[in-house]
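Subgroup meeting minutes
Present: P.N., E.W., G.H.
Scribe: E.W.

1. P.N. recapped why we're keeping a running log of single-chain structure predictions: easier to compare across weeks, and new members can see raw inputs and outputs side by side.
2. G.H. added today's entry (401 aa).
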Amino acid sequence: MVGAERRPPEAVISSTAPRRGATISVAPLQGANYFAVVSGGLRSAPTTSYYLPALRADFGKVRYSMSAQQIRIFVILIVTLVSLAHEIRAGEWVNGTASSATGSRNYSLWVPSGYDKRKPAPLVMMLHGCMQKPRDLATTSGMNTVADKHKFLVVYPEQTKEANGLQCWNWFDTKHQLRDSGEPSILAAIVQQIGSSHRIDAKRIYVAGISAGAAMAVVMGVTYPDVFSAIGVSSGLAFKAGTDVQGGLTVMKQGGPDPTQQALLAFKAMGKNFKGKSARRMPVIVFHGDADPYLNPVNAEQVIVQWATTNDYLDDGRDNGSVKSTSAKLVQGVVPAGHSFTRYLYNDRSGRLLLEKWIVKGLGHAWSGSPAAGPFGDPKGPNASEEMWRFFGETSRASHR
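Output recorded in log:
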C-alpha cells in the first residue's frame, strides 16, 4: 500500500517519538521504493513507523542512493533528536503571573535538569519570608539542587509591597485565612496555572516556607487540603495563631492560643475544603532553631500539637488519641563541624510516620542547612530541604486513611 506512493527523498517522521531504550529496526517494504523503520517502545509506548527512501529510488531526473548502514545511522539520529525534544536537559527558570478573583502574583518556577515533560512531576511551592524575594529563598534553601537530584518542580511565588510593606505573606489577617479568599486563592491559582503548562503529579504537590511563608504554608494546608499533600514549616506558627497585626506580633514572641483549639478550627475548615474528596490527614514537618530571636521556639511545639490534634479529628471525626502529640521516637545528632539537633517523630496508631519536628541547637531565624551563610540561612544545621523532600515522599501514602 505504501509502496505504491512516490515520496520525496527526505524522511517522513511520525509525531510520536519512541521512548528512550526503544529498539529500532530497518526493513524494506516489499515491492516499494521505501524502507519502513519501526521502533518498538518500552513498556506501553506505542509502536511508531518512519519512512525513508529506499537504497535506490528514481525521482524524475534525480537519483537518490543511501546505504543500509547510512539509513540506520540517520534513523537513530532522527529518533534521538525527536525524543530529546521532549526533555529539558538543563535546569531553568520560567517566570509567570497567576490571578484569582482576589488579585494576582508573580512567580518563578524552577524546572529541574533532566525534566521530562512527558512524565508527571511532583511540585513543591516555596513561600519566602519577610523582606525576601523568591530567588533569595531559592538560594538560601538550596531546594533547586534537591529538585535537580529528584526531578521535581519548585515554584516560588512573590509577595508584593502593595500587599504588605515588608513583603510578608499576610498569614495573620482573617481574610487571608480562608479558601477562595485573599492570598490563599492566588497561591492556589499559581498551582493551577503551572498544571496547565506542565504535567504535574496531583498526588504529590507540597507547600513549604520560612517565617511568614511557613505560617502561610500552614494556612494553605488547611484551606486547600485537596491540593497539597504535605507541609514543610521552617520557623512557623499554628493555624490562625494570630488574627490581626498586633496578635501576630504577640504570638511570635510568646506563642499562640491553645493549639488544641486551633486544631478544631483547622479541622472544621478542612472538612469544608476537601470539595467532595475523601478527607485525609495532613503530614507536617517542622524545623526551628532554639536560638531564634524573632519567633519563640514554643511555636514549633504548638504547630505539632495543632496538627496532631487536627489529624486525630480527620481520621474519624473525634479527638480520641489516634494521633498523639507526644513523639514515638527521639533521635539526637550533630552535623559535622555544625549544630546539634533533636529530631522527634510522631506516628499514627498504625505506626506510620505522620509528623516530624527538628529542634536545632544554636540555629537562629534561618533555613537550616543552607548552601551558604546569609541573613536567613545557616549551613551548620541539618539540611532542611533534603529532609523535607524525604519526609514528603515517606508520608504521602500514609496520609490516606
